[in-house]
Amino acid sequence: MIYEYNGNLEENERINQVTNEITSKYSFISIDNAIKASTLEGKIDKEVTLTDKLNRLYNIMLVSSNNRDIVMLIFKDYLDLLKNNNIDNKYYYLSQSINEYLYNYSDFPIISEF
Amino acid sequence: MKHDYEGCINYIQRVMDIYVAIKDKEIKSTYTSQKIPYTLNNQNKIAMAFFLGGFFTNSKIKDYLYEADDINLNRLMSFVHLGQDELKKLPNDGDYNLIYEQSNIKNMFREIMINISYNYRALHVCPELLFFSLSFTNFSEANFYNLLAQKCGLKCSTFSNHSIFRKLEDYLLKNKFVIPLSKQEKEKIKGIPEMLINNNGVNKYQKYDKYLKKPEEDLPNPELLPVGFLGKDKSHLWQILDDILKKFIGQEETVENLFYNIVNNQQLSTLSEIADGERSIIFLDGPTGTGKTAITREITQKLNIPFTSTSIVNYSSTGYVGGDITDTLVDLYHKAGDNVSLAQRGIIVLDELDKLATGSDGLEMKKAVQQQLLDFLGGGKYIIDVGENLFDKKKIEFDTSKLTFVCLGALSNLREEKQESKRSLGFSTEVEEKDKANYSITPDDLIGIGLERELVGRFNTYLHTNDYSKEDLVRILKESSISPLIGLEKWINMNGKTLEIDEDAYDAIAEHAYNLNTGARSLQTVVNNIRTYYMKEVLRGNSPIVHLDKDTINRINENSINRRVRG
User: Fold this and answer.
1) pLDDT class for A65, splitting at 50, 70, 90?
2) Is B513's Cβ below 8 Å from some Cβ in A?
3) Measured between alpha carbons, how far is residue B82 from residues B107, B152, B170, B338 in Å?
4) A99, B46, B354, B559: which has the fewest C-beta neighbours closer than 10 Å?
5) Which of B173, B183, B482 faces A10 most closely, judged by CB atoms?
6) Residue of A nearest to B351 (CA)
């Protein structure tokens, strides 16, 4: 996914730009949900961090959590990021909870609980 | 800008007309790779409406679309043409009339359009794609773009920056009328469409280039300058400046100075020669998070000037490992829509320039890069390779003497030294806080940290962004259009709830952000903490109101922030 610098943009411009980035990557995400996910993240700096990337994927899953099939597709990318990078436990435990959600064992996890 | 916007709306209206006319009808096409008749789905129809909206010039098409029961894309394409008669009406464009009298050129246009719809089955075919494809046959001169854009009803004076398409995207997004492209599709349209290349890998239409290529010196400058740069009426420019000032609260002086310098350089760039030293080469320093990059980007975006930004640490002198600094020229060339005249008036931002200061490591390499930069800033001619693939090898000469350079540096240690020396002069604490921003970086300072004297001599404009005070941060939260609270409020509203903020909550957010010591960036961090804290309540809670007060903010942030207090 593209994570273009948006530090100079107004909030509405930033939300539009991030929404475009999300729908370009995941065309199956509705515009409404992409906008919701965009409002959940902050500004993207010159150097995109792994946390930025994981947060964006988490936000997209969160707003799509009424559809497990969609979450499953995003979750694959989330796991790929985890596999290929060193990351703190929060995102690792979060992935376990998302996995439980996908198997219908629990609600979609809220990041603030980790 | 208004000019562009009107063009955009006209275009949209036409697209809507066409779409309404065709949305419930069956449309067949034989332009598929297997030559099997293909029925367009709804997405194809949307794409087709965009395509036709941009390119048909014959009013009969609308009647045809409304009247016909069985629409065939082949028939439809026959209406798509560049009207030769209308073209002849254009004043002072004898050359173009001559071109159009060559019937093979007319046929070529048809063929290209058919090829594109053939390749992409009318999916995602939009004017941008067509223009892009045309550029591979050397149609890319700005005049020709503009001429073509006018013919297609797209009034846009800054076409190469695609500003009209950004507006178009906004419009489409608002109306939930978006055709997102997948990564693969985007990659695909980057290259030359296969149909335009013959079996030997040679561009089929190269032989026509001689009819179409105009000498660059014939290009009129006004076409290449952002709106409002010429003529006596500059109100448009000042309006842009006012808008930018509202965003970057606390950095007003720097924004104004940078804006005037960039505008001045743009105006100078219309002259055939610029006297030595007249063009501003800007050195902008300031603490992290105070908006050095953001301000520069905002000004260039709003003025529609081709812009590229790069960190100097990515580069090494030729022969060493690392990128070559002339890569920025290639980037600028592409961002200017492959228009070298426009690119030569662009802006290059060189970030982290202070990292070139010769420390104990990499001394020789840093010196070599500084030497290369010296010629680069001074204005030299470079031959750059702008071909995008194996079949498109193309070298052009790029003159850097009209470019605007903005060099950025945090200069953390130097700034601290300067501020420390002020403290030791015995200011009282209150005065000291206000006076901290009033240091100035001199050429000697830069030489002192290890930059070459000759290189420092190139900089003739020194600007710096200020560290934010707590009051500035409160003002940003309350007044700026980039306040992170706007996004938080929007998110809460989208979930059917309302955000209420106590007056002292602003102070609390600013206090925590100030302690983080990363400028305006830290406001975002604090607001993100707040958002995370309220996530469950907003998504699953029953209360219709989210109330932000000082105590809650302190509780949320004390754990995460107190780890990194201001030293």
Assistant:
1) very high
2) no
3) 10, 8, 28, 24
4) B559
5) B482
6) A46
pLDDT band at B462 (very low <50, low <70, confident <90, very high): confident
Q: Does residue A60 have a pLDDT over 90?
A: yes
Query: Between A and B, how many CB-CB pairs are < 8 A?
Result: 92
End-to-end CA distance of chain A: 25
**What is the average per-residue pLDDT within B295-299?**
88
Most confident of the ranges B4-13, B108-117, B383-392, B484-493: B484-493
**How far apart are alpha carbons B96 and B86 in whole angstroms?**
12
pLDDT in tens, B268-284: 777 666 666 677 888 88
Instruction: Considering only residues B124 and B492, tell me which one the structure prediction assigns the higher pLDDT.
Output: B492
Residue matched to tokens 């002339």: B326
Kindly state the tokens that stand for A11: 């909030």
Q: List Cβ neighbours of B431 (8 Å cut-off, separation of 6 or more).
A: none
C-beta atoms of B487 and A35 within 8 A: no
The closest alpha carbon to B520, from B228, B346, B286, belongs to B286
Could you give the 3-state DSSP secondary structure of residue B500?
strand
ipTM value, please give it: 0.83
Among B308, B396, B394, B313, CA closest to B349: B308
What is the H or E stretch that residue A19 is in? helix A11-25
Contact residues for A102 (Cβ-Cβ < 8 A; gap 6+): A68, A71, A72, A75
Residue with tokens 């930004």: B309
Residues whose CB falls within 8 Å of the CB of residue B419, separated by 6 or more in sequence, listed in order: B436, B439
A42 → closest Cβ in B295, B301, B484: B484
Q: Answer whether B237's CB lies under 8 Å from B229's CB.
A: yes
Amino acid identity, residue B337? Answer: G
Note whether B521 contacts A20, CB cutoff 8 Å. no
